[in-house]
Specification:
The chain is of the alpha/beta class and 281 residues long. It has 11 helices and 12 strands. 33% of the residues lie in helices and 20% in strands. Strand 2 and strand 3 (53-57) form a beta hairpin. The longest helix has 21 residues, at 93-113. The two termini are 31 Å apart. It has helices at residues 3-15, 31-36, 62-70, 81-85, 93-113, 143-151, 192-195, 199-203, 224-227, 242-250, 272-280, and strands spanning 23-27, 43-48, 53-57, 119-120, 136-139, 156-159, 167-168, 172-175, 186-190, 211-215, 233-239, 259-265. 40% of the residues are buried.
Length: 281
């Protein structure tokens, strides 16, 4: 079963169990914002009527951002979130992108309603607990995280899809060859691999890894399908001040004052059925 189908199965299970708030607002940078801001605008947001927010990654391709910039977002107001979430299976990349954002919003709503206890952490490296004997791998080039690993004196392999990022230094190497992950015992993967459907391919080369983390602002989804594939940790972003977050993202400012990073470990996660049972009782 594909990852998309697994997520949709969970969404259907939720839909059969409880009601989800309707969409109050969808934010995606418009053309004027894109032209005025020198800094990249990579994210949008879906806000529900109860304040829950799902983060949307809009920079998988230039076309997604271009379509979003000219789309009448008011048409999503009052829409059933379940219907939008099912678009994650769409062949249309813009609809697929919104679908994953909707899944994030539903997931965050269920986490909150079930009083799920997040492991809020300052460990930006996905609780991989690196030591000097480790051979780390990274899928997706995270410059700040590369700097952290460099300080540890480790030799890092970074897998990328963009040829212009290929380079090599004394401490790390960016390559297009995913087979290089076969030598890594701990692997950090960007949540973008969920959206571009490359995760299964990447995991083929991680069979030797003792620990695998998926992290990123858009990793706000239920971890169940990922844990079933051998992922150990999923790290996302919790929005504790939704109104401030929407204000900051619309002004292209850092979200820090409105968010916290968290990690969910497979060994500590009860599963979606248990979370739904908490809500029903």
């Amino acid at each position: 079963m594909t990852l998309a189908n697994e997520f949709i199965e969970i969404i259907q299970q939720i839909s059969d169990t409880i009601d989800i708030p309707l969409i109050q607002e969808v934010y995606i940078p418009n053309q004027d914002e894109i032209e005025k801001n020198a800094r990249k605008l990579n994210f949008g947001a879906i806000k529900l009527e109860d304040g829950t927010v799902g983060i949307v990654y809009i920079s998988l391709s230039p076309q997604i951002k271009e379509i979003g910039a000219v789309t009448d977002l008011t048409k999503f107001i009052g829409m059933n979130l379940i219907d939008l979430a099912k678009e994650f299976k769409s062949s249309d990349n813009f609809q697929k992108t919104l679908g994953l954002g909707a899944i994030n919003a539903i997931s965050q709503y269920i986490f909150r309603k079930s009083d799920f206890s997040f492991d809020f952490t300052t460990d930006s490296l996905g609780l991989l607990d690196f030591n000097r004997a480790d051979k780390p791998g990274m899928v997706g080039f995270f410059p700040p995280l590369v700097a952290h690993i460099k300080k540890m004196g480790l030799q890092l392999i970074i897998i990328e899809k963009k040829a212009n990022l290929v380079q090599k230094t004394n401490n790390w190497e960016v390559t297009l060859d995913p087979t290089r992950l076969e030598t890594c015992n701990k692997v950090l993967i960007t949540s973008t691999t969920i959206l571009n459907e490359s995760l299964d391919q990447i995991l083929k080369y991680c069979s030797q890894a003792e620990k695998i983390s998926i992290i990123g602002p858009t990793a706000g989804f239920f971890p169940d399908p990922l844990f079933s594939k051998g992922i150990n940790i999923v790290g996302g972003t919790y929005i504790h001040n939704p109104n401030l977050f929407m204000e900051l993202i619309s002004e292209n400012k850092r979200w820090g004052p409105s968010t916290k990073k968290y990690c969910i470990q497979k060994k500590n996660y009860p599963g979606i059925t248990a979370l739904l049972n908490r809500i029903k009782t």
